[in-house]
Amino acid sequence: MLEIRDLHVSYGKIEAVRGVSASASPGRITLVLGANGAGKTTTLRAAMGLLPVRSGEVLLDGKPITGRPTHRIVRDGLVLVPEGRQVFAPLTVEENLILGGYTVSKEKAAETMEQVYEMFPILKERRNGPAGLLSGGEQQMLAFGRALMSSPRAMMLDEPSMGLAPTMVESVLSSVRSIADSGIALLMVEQNAEMGLEIADDVVVVARGEVVFSGPAEQARQNSSVVRAFLGEAALSS
Amino acid sequence: GTNEAGESSSTGEGLPDTIKIMSIKEMTGPVSFAGENSTKGIDLAVEQINEQGFLGDTKLEIDLKDASDSTQEAASLATQAVSDKSYSAILGPGLSSQASAISPIAEKGEIPVIYYQAGSDGVLVGDYTYRVTAPAASYYHIIGDYLAEKKVKTAAVLYTSGNPTLTELGEKAVPGVIEENGVTIKRSDTVSNDTQDFTAVTSEIIKADPDAVFLLLLGPQNPRAVSQLKQKGYDGEIIGMTTMGAGNLETAGEDAAGVVWPSNFSARSEVPSTQEFVKAYEEKYGELPNNYAAEGYDAVWLLARGIKEANSADRVAIREGIAKVAAEGFDGAQGPLSFENNDVRVEGVIASWNGSEEVVVTLGDD
Amino acid sequence: MEILINAVTLGSLYLLFALGMSVAWGTIGILNFAHGSTFMFSAMVAYYTVQMVALPMWAMILLGAAVGMVLSVLTQALIFNFILRRNPDLLKAEMQIVVGGIGAASVLLAIAQHYTKSVPFGFSASTFKTTTYQLGAIHISNVQLVILVAAFGLAGLAAWWLKSARAGLALRAIGVNPEVASLMGVDRGRMALGTMAAAGALAGTAGILLTYYLGSIAAETGDSFLISAFAAIILGGIGSVIGVVVGSMILALAETLVVTQLSGTWASAVAFGLIFVVLLFLPRGIFGRKEVRRT
Amino acid sequence: MTTTETAAPYVLEAEDVAVHYGGIKAVDGFGLRLPPGKIYGILGPNGSGKSTFLAAVTRLVPLTRGRLLLDGKEYHSEPPMKLARKGLARTFQTVRLLPELTVLQNVQLGADINDPRGRLRSWLGRDRPSEAVEEAIERTGLGDVRNAWPTELSYGMARRVEIARALAARPRLLLLDEPTAGMNHSERQEVSELMQKLRDEGLAQLIVEHDVQMMVDTCDHLVAMNFGSLVAEGSPQEVVSHPAVQEAYLGKRWRSHA
Amino acid sequence: MIGWYEANIVLIEATFLNFLLALSIQVPLRVGVFSFAGVGSYGLGAYTAAILTIRYDVPAFVAIGAAVVFAAVVGYLFSLIVARLNGLYLAMATIAFVLIISVLATNGGELTGGANGLYGALSDLTTGGVVAVCVVVAFLLALTERGPLRRRIEAVREDPELSMSMGIGVVTVRQLAFTVSGALGACAGAMNALLRTTVSPEEINFHLIVLALTMVIIGGSRSWMGAFIGAVIFTWLPSMLATTGRWQDVVYGLIIILAAIFMPTGLLGLVQSLYQKLRGRSRTAAPAEPPAEEAVEERAMLQALSGESKEGVR
Ligand SMILES: Nc1ncnc2c1ncn2[C@@H]1O[C@H](COP(=O)(O)OP(=O)(O)OP(=O)(O)O)[C@@H](O)[C@H]1O
Ligand SMILES: Nc1ncnc2c1ncn2[C@@H]1O[C@H](COP(=O)(O)OP(=O)(O)OP(=O)(O)O)[C@@H](O)[C@H]1O
Ligand SMILES: [Mg+2]
Ligand SMILES: [Mg+2]
Q: How far is E211 from E25, CA to CA, in rounded Å?
């Protein structure tokens, strides 16, 4: 269970996140929606210990992890797929994956790696090439696969479908669903709201650093303002 | 002298209470051992001069300035000395690069400078600059008898080419001396200023199998080259220059036993004026003086004699006084000193390292 | 033949010196300009110790390694760590780190100059005595053997560790992007400290062995090696242990050949000329990783 | 936007373009012809060579083979910076803003191309943003962040600066690589509208984007590629209903939609 | 005052010479070229000017001009050779260049005076001349730190490929940087040789490289003012510290360390950010708000949303 409670984060004088709360329980996906600059990435990064938290709390399975160093949080069982891929460009694809499994046993890592290769065959093809030469979408696959490697208890995804072709979006999001089904708590920022809403259990909408909607996915799908903002007029009429 | 202080520094006749001299030194940095030792010699000389009343009631006062190894610092200090009229002269730094920067300033600012060390060519320009360290080339010939006595027939030369003094020795003076004594040079090699390892070059030298090896290297390079020669099995003569002195061979220990070098100074020399100096030095510091101390000592005495001759604290007058003293020469810590174009000449001694300390080689009773 | 052995020995000296520097630079991206001073300082501390108690060689090595480790850890904790914390972008911090290292180096150097007055020091008081063996026409000393074994042994160890251990990979990841590395669960601070400790121990070991071999070193010796080490690492390609081995050997061979066949004056010119030419054809050194950058 | 009428029927022509990296054939015999004042889109699975093709067209990677023509004139041996002066501007798939310039200055950099030697006046004194810069900022909705630094921007905002910078050059041909990645539906809508407006003003555009709905709505013509070569070409509807495209690229959703 | 000026004339001149030397490193650094070739040019310039003055007794401005032109040409040719190199590999190549020049000077026989160097280069160069040159140089460089030129320089440094696609001739800019760096370095070297009347190969060593780099990094690497600040600090610091006696080098090292830690943008950067803080204008801009009309629209939507979802928000 991942819980973010009344989080405040600021950059210098500017408060980018002003009291965001969101939670994800094992087996469930919480989708975070919001306009550009709403503070989604800031929330995830702060939860991960990459940004200092001004006030509020982040709990993993009831245990506070606020203020802990990032590498500890990873060992506690929470991982983040960062925005904009962030693969280790000069390292090979396989080395990237090995690093993803840095906190787990070698056997466990080898096992997961096979699953990742199965999910994204192109990664297997390129396993010995530098990750930086992959295409944008291929790097996104690698970033996603790398996060799986640590067999986390909770996972935060920052726009996992960015730059992916429609077929890939489908396969990534359906694997996100199956990861959740295996009992992992998932918090996901996703601009592809249409697909996101399809797999999400709960929805949180953030605007200018504040939560403006929070509820189950069906409720969000019926909320005309949410639909208009994130799916478009067309979806409303259909 | 007069008791009128203040105005007297620029008036022609008579001496003021104190005469201030700037001593530009390398008290820190890579050559601090030279600065340290010459300062001891300087202090001793000043003490003697002031206590003896050599200049009457007038006291010499040394203002010690650290220029480390920076040319710019040294030049700047010299400029300060020129513009501050209370300084009557400069005791110069030991590095050639600093000295060559100071000389034109001194010439233009008309202030006498006495250098020690600073062996390179461009140091002595014009009338205001003097040097109390004789170029090794001027006395290196004394090694000739040693070569004859040891029946040296073949030799190899190894010198540091990045250093002007050593290059001059290695390329001209030493080969000249060697050949004059009927010795053939089998090899001549060079290393650079920052050469650390002598394995390769010593191997080559040993292959040539000379009776004597001449090592003309920077201070810290000496023990290394000596040890490495010995470790490769060399058992002939090793002949160096003054850089072998001043404790540089200590780390080579036994390996360096028997190394000899012509020197401008040795504390064991029997020359009376040297012994006088050594005695006073030992009394004051409880240790034997090295060449830097002797040179510093002689520099002050040259200056003091010049001042006495001039009977004035005026810079131009002092210069003329020094010139007169130099023309006659005097006996100093380094023995009888004479001057050639403002540059000192000494008789020289052959010094040797016996494995634990420096001794003087007297030929014939070996 | 003897030339070759001598060249390999000189190469091993460079290698021993450069190894620690190369490991820290190629992994956590810290180009430590205080490496030379750490090297010298360790030897100096050992020298003052051996003047009091006659120690055998192994004890001297341990002592040197310990001093090097402490100095290096202190440099990391008190300087580089602060720089990195205030400047998380490694690329931007690079220059700051170089300058911080220069500062640390001058502090250590100044202290050493103060105590030794730049007069060379050596370990003649140690119980270890150099002996030379003669194999045909070739002279080889016991220190020379120790140096050869130590240099190649330690290089092999470093290469193996970086290649096979996950920690080695983690170090490389930190060099690429420290923040993302921490997202993988890598404890950047501890890894950096560990690496610098290892690099410092290597510097200390090198300081002891080189002093034994050369007979004596002076306060400034560390800095003269620095530039050769830098050259060897670049020549081989940053981040590659084989690279630094090959780079050291090539540099040493070139210098030895010039010294013995031509003239020592030209040694550094030829050596650096060679580096220059090699870089023109292999812009990232001999074993350097290609720059990964695409549109 | 100003456009000079050109005699050539196509702004950009690429024939049989190939870019190989060792064994990897990133682009392998792909081509297209882009007439003035049209928006063309390229679709294709991840790693099919779209970005590499754009890099080849902008001369940032060397061609293995092929011909490139701008306004009917071959340019595949010219250095990349010449192209910008000929009116070609582009954005990159990864955001590439200059961290030490503000948003405004980043955009101004785009406009500098029309002022190659840099006016002495702007060196010495005032360096007012030109009309083109103001217009680009305004059209991309960056007015409020114009003085912010790139590191302070959210991802979506940074993408807009990329677009604004390209627009500030007042190009005649604009290449956009995933311009709306990281934007939500309504934000994409805005960008799409902007592109259509620009087309109506005569700007030819070539877009790479994975949002098929947006591509269909925006583009006049679609080209689909896979494994570095052409798979299908034609009107948006034709291409999205092409079986090969559906198979390799479009998900179930689109197949069911179509 | 006059007395002080006369007594410290050497340091005053040295400040300006160090300023030019620092600039010869800073100029390439600003366009992302990590080159120390300027230090080599310093040597080239010093020798050229000294040789011309000693042998042909030419006026100072001719000697300096010739040195500058010569080093600029060498710098340009050098840039052609090292066109493929980048980063620290380039740095190494340029260090090699510097050291080779030093060895050439040592072995240059009569022309360069060998290990002795050259002396007696008496000329009519005045402090005023040095200052005038520096003022002109600073003015010209100041022009590159604003407006379009500044933007281009930033672009070339941060992202050469992007610059190319924006029509900036990256290769030309790099070559220009090498050329200018050569000219600046030579200018410093030539003027130093003429003011000090001597030049020796020992001067052109690794320490000079380190000094130049330290001045730039600690002063500030983005603006001529940073180079000037660095030059002032590192010219005067040693004599200021002389009062600390034996430990002056230790204090010097500590100051460098502290500067490296606490001034990531150099002293200049520190001063600038303090100034901005004083004026209450931090580097940060207002937070991103959506464009005005939409904001109203969105606010309406949000109000609607918040009304509906009261129960939803815990
Ligand atoms: N380093 C920073 N310094 C100052 N302000 C910042 C910084 N990073 C982000 N911001 C500001 O904080 C706000 C929230 O940014 P954030 O990246 O969290 O948005 P987001 O919701 O992830 O948007 P997007 O969908 O575009 O990625 C924005 O207004 C942004 O400009
Ligand atoms: N410099 C390079 N070296 C090796 N392979 C490369 C290089 N550049 C691209 N590739 C490979 O070429 C293929 C095409 O890459 P490209 O970036 O053009 O794909 P793309 O169509 O843009 O994909 P995406 O939609 O994921 O961005 C990819 O498989 C990529 O890994
Ligand atoms: Mg975001
Ligand atoms: Mg792409």
A: 11
Q: Do chains A and D touch (3 or more CB pairs under 8 A)?
A: yes
What sections of chain E are H helices per DSSP? 2-7, 9-30, 37-51, 60-81, 87-106, 109-112, 127-143, 147-158, 160-165, 170-196, 206-219, 224-241, 248-262, 266-278, 292-308
pLDDT tens figures, A6-39: 999 998 888 899 999 999 999 999 999 988 889 9
Task: With cut-offs at 50, 70 and 90, classify the pLDDT of residue B244.
Answer: confident
Q: Is A7 in the pocket of ligand 2 (CB under 6 A)?
A: no
> Do C185 and A71 lie within an 8 Å CB cutoff?
yes
Domains of chain E: 2-251 (1.10.3470)
The protein residue with its alpha carbon nearest to ligand 1, atom 28, reads A37
Q: Closest approach of chain D CAs to the CA of A55, in angstroms?
A: 21
Domain of D215: which CATH number?
Answer: 3.40.50.300
> How many domains does chain D contain in total?
2
Sign of the Cα pseudo-torsion (D78, D84, D90, D96, in order)? positive
What is the pLDDT at residue C68? 96
CA distance C42 to C51: 14
Asked whether A209 and A38 are in contact (CB, 8 A), the reply is yes
Specify if D43 maps to a domain.
Answer: yes
Q: Residue B11 pLDDT > 60, yes or no?
A: no
The pTM of the full predicted model, rounded to 2 decimals, is 0.89
- Cβ-proximal residues to A84 (8 Å cutoff; 6+ apart), any chain: A162, D94, D95, D155
Domains in chain A (CATH in brackets) are: 2-211 (3.40.50.300)
Contact B231 C130 (CB under 8 A): yes
Measured in angstroms, the CA of E255 and the nearest CA of chain C are apart by 8
Bridge partners, residue E198, by sequence: E119
Q: Interface pTM (ipTM) of the complex?
A: 0.89
Query: Is the pLDDT at D7 greater than 80, yes or no?
Result: no
From CA A6, how far away is CA A55, in angstroms rounded? 8
Phi and psi dihedrals of C53, rounded to 5? -125, 130
In terms of CA atoms, which chain B residue is nearest residue E118? B122
Q: Report the candidate in D131, D81, D91, D94 with the shortest Cα–Cα distance to residue D111.
A: D131
Highest mean pLDDT among A181-185, B219-223, D8-12: A181-185
Contact between C264 and B201 using a beta-carbon 8 Å cutoff: yes
The residue-averaged pLDDT of E232-259 equals 85
**Shortest Cα–Cα distance, B215 to chain C (Å):** 14
CA gap B191, E211 in Å, rounded: 26
User: From the list C179, C184, C292, which residue is nearest A90 (CB)?
Assistant: C292
Among C23-32, C267-276, D188-197, E277-286, whose mean pLDDT is lowest? E277-286
A70: helix, coil or strand? helix
Using a CB-CB distance cutoff of 8 angstroms, which residues of chain A are in contact with residue D250? 166-167
Chain C residues closer than 8 Å to B204 by CB: 260
**Closest ligand 1 atom to D154 CA:** 17
Structure tokens at E93: 């190549």
pLDDT in tens, E28-70: 999 989 899 999 999 999 999 999 999 998 999 999 999 999 9
Per-residue confidence band for E78, with pLDDT thresholds at 50, 70 and 90: very high
Q: Which of D114, D145, D170 is the last residue before a domain boundary? A: D170
List chain C residues with pLDDT less than 70: 88, 292-295
